[in-house]
Amino acid sequence: MSLKQKMAMSMATALLGVSLISGGTYSYFNDQEETMNTFATGLLELGINKQSIIQMKDIVPGDTMESDFTLTNDGTIDMREIQFLTDYKVIDKSENNNGDNLADYIHVELLHHVKGKEKVVFQKKLSDLKKKPFPILDAFPTGGNQEKFSIRCTFVDNEGNQNHFQRDSIELTWIFEAKQREGKSNVQ
What range does the record give for the signal peptide (predicted)? Predict the structure, then answer.
């Protein structure tokens, strides 16, 4: 055999060996199981039984009005806190008030009804509540619970002349804001 044939035979043998090593046969057992997984967010939904809690018309100093309302947790997750926010605009239609604010003379009292008893949440002038969140409930779990409240508003009589408030009004917005519970590890 010539040198060329020996080289060709060596190359062919080497290629055959490499192909057998790399592409050799192998065998094993295999099994697979498929799982279906879900990530679904909860719903934070605070409910209230009224569109408007209180409407006071044609009031005079000394008038008081009370109204009841109910908050519900209509969502699927617990609430950590409920905050009460107030915003308003005074409409001055008559005499110049000379810096006297009608909201300083509206006294607001929020009552929480718990097990047949009234618990005073706060007693403040309407002007002290403006744009300041005030916590009214520390926790509100899901499960159909209802929290009953009353709000009592009084136009305070300062025993002086309050004629400059005649025909004035307040456009009042109350917002109840629910905050979600804290995140948990190993949520089931």
Answer: 1-27
Report CA torsion sign: 131, 133, 134, 137: positive
- Radius of gyration for the chain, computed over Cα atoms and rounded to the nearest angstrom: 37
pTM, full prediction: 0.77
pLDDT tens digits along 149-183: 999 999 999 998 888 899 999 999 999 999 998 88
- The CATH number given to whatever domain includes residue 75 is 2.60.120
Structure tokens of 139? 């926790």
Under 8 Å between Cβ of 126 and 106:
yes
Backbone angles phi, psi at 25, to 5 degrees: -85, 145
- Residue 89 placed within a domain: yes
| Residue 118 placed within a domain | yes
Domain range for 113: 46-180
